[in-house]
Amino acid sequence: MTQSGTTTPLPPVAPKVFASAVESLTTRLRGRLDAAVEAMTAAPVTVEGGMFGVRCGEDALVTLAPDPSGAITDAEQARCTCLLAPRCLHRAAVLGTCPVAVTEPARPVDIAPSALSRLSGLGAAAEPAGAVPPAGPEVSAGPDRIAEPDRPTDETRLTEQVSPTEQVSPTERIRLADPGPEPARDPTDAPTGPTAAQIRAAAGLWTAAAAVLSAGTAGTGAVLQAELLRAAHTARLAGLHRAEAAALGVVRCLRTAHDPYSPGRLTELVTALRELLLVAHLLKAGDPEPALIGAVRRNHRPDGSLRLYGVCREPVIGADDLGGVVTHLLDDDGRWYTLRDVQPGGPARARRAGTALVAIRSFLSDHFRVSHGGLIISGATVSPEGRLLAERGVRATYAAGRPWTEAAPATVFARPLAESAAVRFPASLVADPEGTGDHEGTGYARPLIGCDVEIAAADGEDLLVRELPCGRDAFAGCPPLAGPPVRLAPAHSHPALAHTANLRQLGARPGLRIRVLGRLDPDRVTTLRALAVGPVPGTEATLRLPDDWQGRADLGYDLLLSDHFPPDIPPPSLPSPPAPSSYASCAAPSADSPLWRVRRLVELAVTGGRRIAAESTRGNDHDGHAAVLRRSGLVTGSDLITALGAVAGHRSLDVFGRHSGADPDRYATQWLATAVYLAAAETNLRHGTWPGHEPTSTATDTGTATATATGDS
User: Fold this and answer.
1) pTM exceeding the 0.85 threshold for the entire prediction
2) Beta strand 363-366 with 306-318: parallel, antiparallel or unpaired?
3) 281 CB contacts (<8 Å, ≥6 apart)?
4) pLDDT tens for each residue of 429-444
5) Which of 81, 126, 208, 371 could bridge across to 228 with cysteines, CB 3.0–4.6 Å?
């Protein structure tokens, strides 16, 4: 028997199991559930024979028995020894502590402009045309089971499509059934919209999400989360895969937002809640857009063998003390794959994982060797995010790698940064934010961004660089492109990793030319998060790396020394940029524009709920914010925050003049209008900050807002 502390991860639990456990509690026990869930985080956990035991007191022991997939998918797999079981507080609290047993949320399918034009009550929000692209971490930090060849991965678990009658009680079947038989449809006919069951499921999701928004993160406890999970399960049974993924994404954000005012966590939660409300609103209105339904993403099995080339290693430091490494690989067609090793351990494990062993069935190597070499994989199984999985039948063999200057790796550096930014941050929110097209969600990872730059100056931990021309002209030593410099920022600033030290070495050598691989930062204008660097061909003023590094250095692991730089570096080709202090403010685009006033209210409504949103709009400060937006030309933004404050504080009266309570639907619709407007305006503004591109549609608006986004507007 293994005795473990609070760091032992409990098995994931299916949404319907936790929702049923909460529904079985009495009203009195539900009021004590939040405190019980918080107390369970410190309860001792024992693991014996694949079963988890959580001690909840002298006479209460909750036992979790995961199925072969490693998840709790049935109520009988969670038992308690107390007299009130299974309708006991101990069992529900332990299940509320467990993670949600589902695959990672599917990337939302883009909404056509016609769908937004049909969005009832959101006319003003649809002004910056398009749907809202999801935000999220570029690398998801979750426990990885690739080193456990005999155990199915989390990605494999619960990915099968559940039929509307599978494991459904008779009551649910009646509730989900259509009121009458549907007429026969011609297979060649165009989609006519969601079915009656799907509309009811979407309405349930909308109601649950509106309750979460009204309560805010501070007031959303286990009971509201259970209601949202129940609605997500109903959406799954009805075939609303995108809506289910959005709801589960909101629950994940709520459970991991230990500090709801942390900028990264709060932005992720706002995006997830906006996606859920937007999809649910369109579906319950009967919108026929097929993209709103979504699809079940399954693991991808490429035909034949995969020939992959290592590109770089990326350290991962995630929430809940997770740490590890992701090795990025590329095939001959320029498609990206990842080999992940992320487990509890925090920054210390992230530092060690760069040279840790990695197993793919019988193949055993380490991440350094794989990232500088390659793999030949037969019978490959790839997750929808491009992650290589060690399932049965997979065979891997080590193969020689390629430098960045050859074949497929070289194509990564053939696109100018401005063009990459136009794809990553499209002016139209309908466009694919990663530019992967049909590759998205079909087994290929998000591509990294590459470019050749000349170092101009250092600015704290960051570097100010100027981009070099792409193609053969860059090899001939041409001067860098004119225009404002681009900022290189460390992917991680933790002292356990080498990013900051390496950028400090590079910043001390203005005029040095390097080849950079990284990803664009969505929250900082003209900023590239650098993951790896290499020498630029055709010039002497570049890096001189050891042969066994294959012409690149992983900034998180490989430490650059003085021997890796040329002795004489010419000065920068262009004059040095202005004082670094003028570039110190490289925060989100809305931070330097009046849009931050809109974001402030949108985020405050999510964290504090409806009551705090109403209180924040009382007084001269709110009127001043609205006036500044109007003077700046953001008339719709001004009208939206004014309407949101008015709706948040509105209380209807009954025939006797008494307050009859708030209208959560009207408030949720008004918040959604403001959030969609904010996302569209920020996307256009972000697109215009990259050199060489101007926004195709302006984020400023003239004229009066045309809608108040209320339920009857």
Assistant:
1) no
2) unpaired
3) 119, 120, 122, 206, 669, 672
4) 433 333 333 344 556 7
5) 208
